[in-house]
């Protein structure tokens, strides 16, 4: 039996095309997915990004689905949140072919049940992997059919109904699509809005010739920052490769943290539904739950990862959720993540008042943070234990292990240390009152991790 553990991740399937992932294997994944969801739905909606390998792989997946008697609706080139829209609005399971911000040689499959409900290791992905490893059983009935559908206009119209920008003052916004799917969706979503878009790298190119399509890495927003300053824009927005995440810079070209965006959007959603629940993962700034509570909301803390966020949103009926990685989840969007909707919220908030974005977001940026710092270690468990032992004896320190190790210290500083699921890494996030305190605590923890 083949061992697929290297490419079947916690939330998706991802690997190097030609070495780990090819059309024959993807056809089997399609058949296994069909077997999983056959009792629930008559068809599967399939979309793909701009990578050279995506059309062929998505067609192979469709062959696998139809080989099990289910129909396929193909929507062609799309962003991941556009696929979620199709899954939600058509009430069908879905599959998106993308490797997000990974290099060109990679591709992958993000799958969901009808209504954009996630398929992860605990919700079907392990079962799909087992079926493929053991051999997909043949189906003797009639093959399914394939139809094409264009949902881009419906997707754009749906987003514009959720955020009213009709009263916005005119804005100039630089958008860096990173040669990813934002270049496909932004022109349609923003059509007719009082926003002048200054496009950067809108050409769809899965080789990412200008920079990696990962806006959380500071080196990948340097061009955006420079262009915002050069053209005197009100804001800048960068999308990742499959355009489900967005990253924002203000009129000075300074990054706005995803935690500040989470707080800003949460306040807007709470204005529509006072007393609502807002989900935040444990690495977002502690300013997020503070601000949610101050505006009458109920903050709920979760582990990192979209399957945990979505499950908790379903359990609590939450109106919104945000992660430190710039994933933003909306109940009105089938609890799925959409960077485009978050971007519209930010621009609506900016356009409703006369001040610059830096002033608007200042109220939502209360603390200094390290960002995620990765350390390669030989023994994750031993290093984690060394850090835990060192801080367990400190007066006033509070420790929890909801996701890795989180240590709250007297005076408000805290850090989280988590092992990577796929690499020999420990990931550290630190927050404190000011930059000096962040650096001091970071140095202390890293000395234990790397020492």
C-alpha-based Rg, rounded: 22 Å
Superfamily at the CATH H level of the largest domain?
Alpha-D-Glucose-1,6-Bisphosphate, subunit A, domain 3
Q: Quote the beta fraction.
A: 15-25%
Low-confidence segments, given as residue ranges, are none
Number of domains: 3
CATH topology of the largest domain: Alpha-D-Glucose-1,6-Bisphosphate, Chain A, domain 3
Biggest sheet record:
7 strands, mixed
How helix-rich are the residues, as a percent range? 25-40%
How large is the count of helical segments?
14
Total count of strands: 23
Mean pLDDT: 96
Q: What sort of overall outline do the alpha carbons produce when their principal axes are compared? A: globular
Head-to-tail CA distance between termini: 41 Å
CATH classification, class level of the largest domain:
Alpha Beta
Please identify, by name, the CATH architecture of the largest domain.
3-Layer(aba) Sandwich
> Could you say which structural class the secondary elements and strand pairing correspond to?
alpha/beta
Cofactor: Mg(2+)
Family: Belongs to the phosphohexose mutase family.
Keywords: Isomerase, Magnesium, Metal-binding, Phosphoprotein
Pfam families: PGM_PMM_I, PGM_PMM_II, PGM_PMM_III, PGM_PMM_IV
List keywords for this structure.
TATA-Binding Protein; 6-stranded antiparallel beta sheet; Alpha-D-phosphohexomutase_SF; Alpha-D-Glucose-1,6-Bisphosphate, Chain A, domain 3; magnesium; 7-stranded mixed beta sheet; 3 domains; 451 residues; 36% helix; alpha/beta; globular; phosphoprotein
Account of the 3D structure:
It holds the Pfam family PGM_PMM_I. It comes from Amycolatopsis ultiminotia. Residues 372-446 form the Alpha-D-phosphohexomutase C-terminal domain. This protein has 3 domains: 13-150, Alpha-D-Glucose-1,6-Bisphosphate, Chain A, domain 3, CATH 3.40.120; 151-366, Alpha-D-Glucose-1,6-Bisphosphate, Chain A, domain 3, CATH 3.40.120; 368-450, Alpha-D-phosphohexomutase, C-terminal domain (TATA-Binding Protein, 2-Layer Sandwich), CATH 3.30.310.50. The protein has helices at residues 23-37, 54-67, 80-90, 125-134, 152-162, 182-189, 222-231, 258-272, 287-294, 306-316, 339-351, 357-362, 380-392, 435-450, and strands spanning 13-16, 43-48, 71-77, 94-97, 106-113, 117-118, 146-148, 171-176, 195-200, 235-239, 246-249, 255-256, 277-281, 298-302, 320-322, 328-330, 336-337, 368-369, 373-376, 398-400, 405-408, 414-419, 425-432. It is globular, with a radius of gyration of 22 Å. The two termini are 41 Å apart. By secondary structure, the chain is an alpha/beta fold. The chain is 36% helix and 23% strand. α1 crosses α4 (125-134) and α8 (258-272) runs parallel beside α9. The protein has 14 helices and 23 strands. The longest helix is centred in the C-terminal third of the chain and has 16 residues, at 435-450. Strands 1, 2, 3, 4, 5, 6 and 7 form a 7-stranded mixed sheet that branches. Strands 18, 19, 20, 21, 22 and 23 form a 6-stranded antiparallel sheet that branches. It has a 5-stranded mixed sheet with strand order 9-8-10-11-12, sandwiched between helices.
